[in-house]
Amino acid sequence: MIEYFVHIDVDDPPKDLVVAPIDVPDHVSRILIAVTQLPEDWRQSPAPASLAAIGDAFVADQKAGILIVPSVLAPSESNWLINPRHSEFGAIRIQPPEPFQYDARLFD
Question: pTM score, two decimals?
Answer without folding.
Answer: 0.82
